[in-house]
Design brief:
The chain has an eight-stranded antiparallel β-barrel. It is globular and about 70 Å long. The longest helix is centred in the first third of the chain and has 20 residues. It contains one helix and nine strands. Helix content is 10%, strand content 43%. The protein is mainly β. It binds 2-acetamido-2-deoxy-beta-D-glucopyranose (2 copies). One 2-acetamido-2-deoxy-beta-D-glucopyranose binds next to loops. It is found in: Secreted, Extracellular space, Apoplast. It comes from Stephania japonica. InterPro entries: Allene_oxi_cyc_Dirigent, Dirigent.
Length: 202
């Protein structure tokens, strides 16, 4: 029993010793390969302007307007596949869609734009990959953005997509959005989608 304790103690000491002599833990500028990285104390990060006081959860409800038709479309097809399929697999569309507080594009307040692209990533259904930034232009969020990337099976009632990051007030953002189609004009293809955004940030 005593030997076991001694062995454990020696193991612990050697681990501690390793930590101390590991050059990766040195923070002096002696030309080590990892000189460009510095560990920051989170509790002091506020003083650096990072604002890491307390993580909060924010819910935003926005309407996303995909205008395909008319004189001022906000989408453009950048690639049309040379092999046709029922799902349109391979089609890539770039967007600069309005984000408003209400579903009526003309009457409701514009708070930002959804800029990015979506592409048909499924061979068997209308399944999109969305890669877009919600760029906010209103109030305290003006200039801040959140980045969304995920799978969007557009005929499903609620589609969930991850928030993979953010900028400005949304630094360190993570979370998810839930998209549900509000209306589609079957003649033109124009669509309004309600986005409920749940984002953790500081
Ligand atoms: C589509 O493009 C690829 C690559 O250029 C080519 O190999 C293929 O034959 C094309 N398919 C059709 C249906 O034209
Ligand atoms: C948002 O910020 C831009 C750039 O700083 C500024 O030009 C614009 O007026 C701001 N918009 C609002 C609604 O505050």
């Amino acid at each position: 029993m005593a030997t076991l304790t001694t062995t454990l103690l020696l193991l612990l000491l050697s681990l501690l010793n390793n930590v101390q002599s590991n050059p990766n833990n040195n923070n002096n500028n002696n030309g080590d390969d990892d000189d460009f990285a510095t560990s920051l104390d989170r509790s002091k990060a506020h003083g650096l302007g990072l604002g890491l006081k307390r993580e909060k959860l924010t819910h935003l409800r926005l309407y996303w307007h995909d205008v395909v038709s008319g004189p001022n479309p906000t989408t453009i097809m950048v690639s049309s596949p040379n092999r046709t399929s029922a799902s349109g697999f391979g089609t890539v569309i770039m967007i600069d869609d309005a984000l408003t507080l209400g579903p009526d594009l003309k009457k409701s307040k514009l708070v930002g734009r959804a800029q990015g692209l979506y592409a048909v990533a499924s061979q068997t259904e209308i399944g999109l990959i969305m890669a877009m930034n919600f760029a906010f232009m209103e109030g305290k969020y003006n200039g801040s953005s959140i980045s969304i990337m995920g799978r969007n099976r557009v005929f499903t009632k609620v589609r969930e997509m991850p928030i993979i990051g953010g900028s400005g007030l949304f630094r360190f953002a993570r979370g998810y959005v839930q998209a549900s189609t509000h209306s589609v004009n079957v003649k033109t293809g124009d669509a309004v989608v309600e986005y409920n955004v749940y984002v953790l940030h500081y």
